[in-house]
Structure formats: C-alpha cells, structure tokens
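REQUEST ID: PR-0412
SUBMITTED BY: lab tech R.K.
PRIORITY: routine
TASK: structure prediction, single protein chain
INPUT:
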Amino acid sequence: MPLPPMQFKPLLKPKVWGGRSLELLGKQLPPEEPVGESWELADLPDEIAGGRSLIAGGPFDGQSLQDVLEHDALALLGRTSRSPEGGFPLLLKYLDAHDNLSVQVHPDDAYVADHPEAHLKSEAWFILEAQPGSVIYAGLKPGTTPEDFASSIEDGTVVDHLVAIPARPGDCHYLPSGTCHALGAGVLVAEVQTPSDTTFRVWDWGRTSRELHVEQAMACIDFSGTSIEQPRPHPTTTGNHRLTRLADTDYFRIERVESFDPGEMILETQGVPEAFMVLDGEGTLSVADHSMSLKRGDTFLLPADMEQGVMKMKKPMDFLKTTMLPST
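STATUS: complete
OUTPUT:
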C-alpha cells in the first residue's frame, strides 16, 4: 500500500539571536521569548533532545519519521538511503536571525572520519526576508591563513576575514561542510541540510553565555578562499508555473516552484522522496482518499512510492522543493 503525503508539527527552538519573525510563517511562538529556529522536518538520533518531528494528521498522526521508516523504509525512501545514523536523510528548518548568529563551521568528511561522534552537515539557505543592508557571512577572504584567523579570534576582528554577501530575498546559497559562516542580523531563511546538529562555534560577537569550540572549528575550516557565490539562476516557465533550479549538491536538489494563478498542479515522485516548504499561497493536496490543507509556512513530504497527487490552489502558491538523490 503506497504511503500518503505527510505534514509535520514544527519544533520551535529558542535562541539568543532569535526574534519573532517566524510568526510571519504562521508559527505559534511562546510569548516574550526569542525563537530562532523552527525545525520543520527532522529525524535526528535519540541523544539529540527534540530532534524528531511528529506527523500531523493522516494514518501516522503523532508518529515520527523513524516510526515510518520502521514500518516501510522502502516505500518512504525508495532509491535513497538512510542517513549514516539510520534516520531520514534530510533536515528542514526556518531560521529567524534577529541578531547575528555565531560564526561557526560544520565538520567535513575528514573530520568525521576521525571523530565518529561528529556528523557531516552541508546546508543551503534560501533567503525569504532581509532587512535593508543585511548580509550573510560565508567563507573566508582569499589569503586568510589559520594563523591570521586564530589571531582574529583573540582580538575580536573575525568579521574582517569573513566574506559578506548582501542578503537578497530569492537568493539561495549552498554552504558545504567546512565553510566558515554566519547569518547576519535581520535575515529570515529556509534552510535545507543534511541531518546533523554538529556545530562548532568559533566566535560569538562578544556574547559569553555559550561555549565556543575553537580547536574543533580550526580543524574543520576551509582556508582555500573558495567563493560560494553563484550567478542567480534563470527560471523556466511552463504553462502557469515557473521553475528555478537553485542548488544541486551531492545530497539533494533544491528548486523553487511558483504558480501564477490558482488552479491545479500535479505532484508525483520519481522513486525518491520530495519535501516541500510552502513559501506563500494556500491550497489542498489530495492523494487517493487522503487530503491535507496547506498554507504559508507549512512543510510536507511526498514518500518515494506515493501515488500521483493533485494540488488544488485557492491562491497562487510558491514552494521550495527538495528532492533527495538516489543512492550511488
């Protein structure tokens, strides 16, 4: 029996750098508390508290993706493999950087090979909203040496070595593991990443309430000076839809799908799971005898073996679509 599409209950994460902008995406935030992240689709190991999304509605209501994997992994994943930790191989979030995030790095393949407790994390940021003059920091300026960077940590001039990129809504930036990076203040993003919560903070803008991981970070940072900036991709238009290929990585493909008018859109998978983050609009997805109502800020997953679905749009819809890649 094919699996139905699945919608998830968000996992809200208070952060010192967070704010209230996730309310723009329909999130019900706790009063008077800065919330930085909404984990939309997560299946992290048991030792990470609050690391597993619960399904909202349908036959798997209240269960986790891990439960569905145990029920029928082939139907869910198809030609895609589980994560190295045995879970679903994708993590989706919304991030509200009301203040600057810490300057950080995630472990690369070499570090993970020598440190089994660390997990590979490559990610992409799709910029939803940005205050005038806001930036993201991604990568080190060419010529920065480990010695230069270590000295800047000591004297508080780290930002002088970071590449600052203007934050423009609609841009997507892929940050492979090893990229030293930070979200700048005033930016709201959708984040697509491999399923890991291993983060090494190397500098925290003078904040002293959180642990730094300078030694681990220095062992992971890419000092090659390679730029992550890419030309803005050109969309293709078919009928009343526009498709923009935003990122092709070793782990997933990200596309933006925009409809111009209300109407119907056919959704079907090609033997691998696909996840959708609703950036705007409103509609109802129907698959066989199952249906779900969707609006801005919702996230849903199409299992690999799902039957063809029909999205009936009440208002033109805008999606961030992530396709998992087949295992090699």
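NOTES: The chain has a mean pLDDT of 95.
REVIEWED BY: pending
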